[in-house]
Input
Amino acid sequence: MTTHPPVAVVTGGAAGIGWEIGRRLAADGYLVVAADRVAGQTAGANPDGILWRELDVTDPAAVDGVFGEIEADLGPIEVLVNNAGIQRHRGIEDLSWEEWAAVVDVNLHGVFLCLQAGGRRMLARGDGRIVNISSISSRGSAGRAPYATTKAAVIGLTATAGAEWAARGVRVNAVAPGYVDTGVFRHGIEQGTLDLDTILNRIPAKRLADASEIAAAVSFLAGTDSRYMNGQTLYVDGGFMVDYGIPLAKKPL
Ligand code: NDP
Output
């Protein structure tokens, strides 16, 4: 009998943070499938052997179909990382309905659809781990209304699914990254809607995160060392969320 390595699916896993998550899970011993609407880095040099399945996470039939195909071809999905996400920078008063809806569709509806499709399969076996990718923007973030709203909603969905499924063998947790020099962030820098110096100054660690540091937290939540964690959000942000952000004007005496 052929034994297959456990399967991990990373949505939006063909680029950026998702790609690094896939590389880390491959190093952890998973057969990794990047479920992404583009082939991205899976099409280039790919020594980690990360597979690619075309998927738009906003399409309910496609999500269920692709998850079914992956299980039929490769075996049960043991780990699902809901990483696909997009960003639009604009003030609330100027946002178009299309911009709002596009972000909500990918960042919230997409996470729900994959969580449900993956979760149902894991519940049937009584085994699985799901990690959702939120953001520090979940605290509220000027100029990013749909992004901040959906990333906060992901924390609520994670807590709820984590509680619902805790006694049934399926753990759901989230990672909320700080700023990482990948697509969502780079797009803002290129557009001129984000300023690197302002951002670095606001981060207590005074640097961006490396995508591998986000992947390490995902690896922990996907593994057995986190077995008593359900519905939690882990912030990997160089101290961003714990700092009020206003330094003293003078050093205390
Ligand atoms: P990237 O844009 O580099 O990668 C995201 C990947 O998801 C892309 O390949 C993208 O494809 C894909 N994708 C987008 N929409 C869909 C869809 N509908 N279905 C399937 N795949 C899709 O983003 P990052 O790596 O920067 O971000 C990854 C996650 O981390 C996101 O959820 C983001 O919100 C979150 N995050 C990022 C931070 C950062 O500073 N970079 C900080 C905090 C959180 P395409 O290129 O076609 O859009």
